[in-house]
Amino acid sequence: MTPDDSADPQMLRRIHVLLTRMLAELDRVCRRLEVSYAAYGGTAIGAVRHKGFIPWDDDVDVLMPRRDYERFLSQAPDLLGERFRVDNTRTIRDYPFMFSKLVLKDTLLIPEFAKDSTYRMPISLDILPVDNVPASPRAFRAMSRNTWLWGRLLFLRGTPRPYLIGITGPRRTAIYAATSTIHWIMRGLGITPRLLQSRWEKAARRYEHADTDRMADFSMRDPENWALTKDELFPLIEAPFEDITVMLPHKYDVLLRRGYGDYMELPPPDQRRNHKPHVIDFGPYASTLP
User: Fold this and answer.
1) Which of 6, 85, 143, 170 falls 20 to 30 Å from 132 in CA-CA distance?
2) For residue 140, is it within any domain?
3) 158 in a structural domain
4) Angle CA 219–220–223, to nearest 5
C-alpha cells in the first residue's frame, strides 16, 4: 500500500477488523489475569461517539496503571494466542517507544513517521502505563522534564528523521540535521534503546510506592494534561466497541473533555488525521479480510 491509499475506506476497514480482533484478545487476557485496562485517547472517543473506531483512525490505545501493566507484561505472553506478541525494549533490541505494543505477527503497518526506523512495526495496539504523580507541582514538573528528555532520546535512537507536520523549508532541514546528528552520536557511543528506556522508566516510576491519588501518562509531551485520579479511572465501565465490548474509565467524559474539549463534535475534514501509513502488509490475513 502506498501513502496515497491511507484514506481508502476499504483499507481502513481491514485495519479496523484486525485491530478489533487484537483488542478482543487483550480484553480476554486482561479479564483472565484480573488486570485493569481502559480504552484511551482516540479509542475512548471512538467508543463513546461512534461505538467503535473513529472512522479515519488507524490505531488503538489503552492505558494500564503501572502495577497492572507490569503484571500484564510478565504474565500475558503465556496466555496470548499464537498469533500475538508483546513488543517493547525488554523483548526487541531496536524498539523505539516508551510503552509496549500488542502486535499481530507476520504483518506490517509502518507509519510515515517511522519509515526510517530499524523497528519494522507490525499491526499493533499501544499499551501505555500510567504512573504515580507526586503531590508537589514542582516535583511533577521536574518528573515531566526528565521523562520527556529520555523519551525523546529513545525515539531519536530508533528514528533519525521524525515525521514533521506543517514544518517545511530551512527549518525542516535544520531539525533533521539536529535529529540525525543526535541519532548517529548515540549509535556511535553504543547507547542502546534498552538503556534509554531504563532511564525513562526510572524517572516515570520514581513515585511508584508513594501514597498519591493521581497518575499520568509520561509518554506524552504534556503529562499534566493526561493525568487522572483513581476515582476518575475506577470502577471501570463496559462499553460497546464495533462487535465487542471494551472497558472505559469511570469518568471518561471528564477525562476526554480535559484532553480534547468538546470531543462529541466531529472535527473539520482537514483535521481528521491518522498516522499516514507508509507500508501496510496484511500478511496471512489478507485473503480473509473484507
Assistant:
1) 85
2) no
3) no
4) 105
**CA–CA distance from 286 to each of 17, 24, 84, 205 (Å)?**
11, 19, 16, 40
Report the sign of the C-alpha dihedral through residues 6, 7, 13, 17, in that order. Answer: positive
Residue 201 forms part of a structural domain: no
**Domain at 22, CATH number:** 3.30.460
CA distances from 53 to 86, 87, 157 (A): 22, 23, 31
Q: Which domain holds residue 112?
A: 3-133+216-288
250: nearest Cα among 228, 232, 230: 232
Based on DSSP, count helices (H) and strands (E) in the chain, helices before strands.
8, 11
**Do the domain assignments include residue 67?**
yes
SS3 277: strand
Minimal CA–CA distance to 140: which of 247, 57, 214? 214
Q: What is the pLDDT along the chain (290 residues), one digit of tens a residue?
A: 333 444 688 999 999 999 999 999 999 999 999 999 999 999 999 999 999 999 999 999 999 999 999 999 999 999 999 999 999 999 998 899 999 999 999 999 998 878 878 899 999 999 999 999 999 999 999 999 999 999 999 989 988 887 666 688 899 899 999 999 999 999 999 999 999 999 999 999 999 999 999 999 999 989 999 999 999 999 999 999 999 999 999 999 999 999 999 999 998 887 777 767 889 999 999 999 98
Q: Answer yes or no: are the C-beta atoms of 242 and 24 closer than 8 Å.
A: no
Pair 103, 123: CB distance under 8 Å = yes
Cα angle, residue 281 at apex, residues 280 and 284 outer, rounded to 5° = 155
